[in-house]
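just leaving the lab so this will be short. below you get a single protein, a line of residues and a line of whole numbers that encode the local backbone shape. id like you to explain what the token line says about the fold, in plain words if possible. thanks a lot i owe you, the record is right below:

…
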Amino acid sequence: MKTVASPETPPRHKVTLKELIGSGDRIMLFTLPFLIVGVVLQIAAPSFMDVGGPPDWLRAISLVVLAVGVVIWLWAVALILAKVPHGELITTGPYAVMMHPIYTSVALLVLPWLGFLLATALFVLVLVRGLGTYSWPMSIVVTAAIAIACDVVFKQWLGMPLPAGPLGL
């Protein structure tokens, strides 16, 4: 009886931290100053950051959505840290339901008190600039175009009032 030798599996490539986080370091460096300024303003002058907020029932719903966003984000990050360094494809957990659970969870974390258009513009700018290869001027143009399109579609065409933040946006 002849024994067939199994082909050797190639050695797995050890994933470096840079390969694992990809653009995450650039996104973090871009967003960290905004986070620091926001936290400092909230501590130093809470009335400056107060925009009234929603009624209690909407605040409760917002907190539930926020909690869901945090759980999805933590779950997705834990799966990435556990599986990607070993070269495993993630097909379980939130990745079984959606393609990009971290982006989805970040969208759930954007607070409505910023105002819809301002929150959308900041979120799009971070995504376009952090993940894309656009220059700053092009990133700003794309962000402005999307914010204006949202304003036209929702406010003008559909007549839907959008939550306004401290700047009325």
Remarks:
- Residues 112-169 form one domain.
- The mean pLDDT is 74.
